[in-house]
Design a protein that fits this description.
Blueprint: H1 21-48, E1 59-63, H2 65-69, E2 73-77, E3 82-87, E4 90-95, E5 106-108, E6 111-113, E7 120-121, E8 127-129, E9 138-143, E10 149-157, E11 165-166
Antiparallel strand pairs: 1-10, 2-3, 3-4, 4-9, 4-11, 5-6, 6-7, 7-8, 9-10
Bound molecules: FE2/S2 (inorganic) cluster.
């Protein structure tokens, strides 16, 4: 019976801690294969796993009707990058994303101003200056089954007057 039976040439009975060149190369090869395998496996799994959770949902809550109506005026929602505007019993939601290159606009006395390249919009969101090619759109607002007011970013409204949603408390 041969003294060495496994592929790594390790003698279980030996007290010698040094490893042979062959053993070292075999272990290094195994390590390299495991490393490359984990990198490839991670890449493939990352590609196959849906990234739906990384994208913010297009439908989002702006709050319960009574809470929304309690905040009269225009309030910026930084998470969704929208302005929620309440006048009386009506609410509308407008994007805060500049139509030029996507910076977040600031609400100013005359409407909106983009800090990136100087685009300006009037109080309704119509582009009035700078490189912005289009007005700031509004999103449809409706009462969800949960009892909260929802805004849907996929349903765009281009006429400011049509964007108002009457809230019933
Ligand atoms: S991104 Fe707003 S002006 Fe360029």
């Amino acid at each position: 019976m041969p003294k060495y039976r496994n592929s790594l040439n390790v003698d279980k009975d030996s007290n010698d801690k040094s490893i042979t060149r062959r053993t070292f190369l075999a272990l290094a090869g195994l390590g390299a294969v495991a490393g490359v395998g984990s990198i490839l496996g991670g890449s493939i799994l990352g590609f196959l796993y849906p990234n739906a959770m990384k994208v913010p949902p297009s439908v989002f809550s702006i709050g319960r009707p009574a809470d929304v109506l309690a905040t009269e005026g225009k309030v910026f929602n930084p998470k969704q990058k929208v302005f929620v505007e309440v006048v009386g019993d009506k609410v509308r939601v407008q994007t805060g994303v500049c139509t030029h290159l996507g910076c977040t606009v600031n609400a100013v006395e005359t409407g909106y101003a983009c800090p990136c390249h100087g685009s300006t919009y009037d109080l309704e969101g119509l582009n009035t200056g700078g490189p912005a090619p289009r007005p700031l759109v509004y999103f449809e607002v409706y009462l969800g089954a949960s009892g909260e007011l929802l805004a849907d970013k996929t349903k765009k409204i281009h006429v400011p007057g049509d964007a108002w949603h009457t809230v019933r408390v």
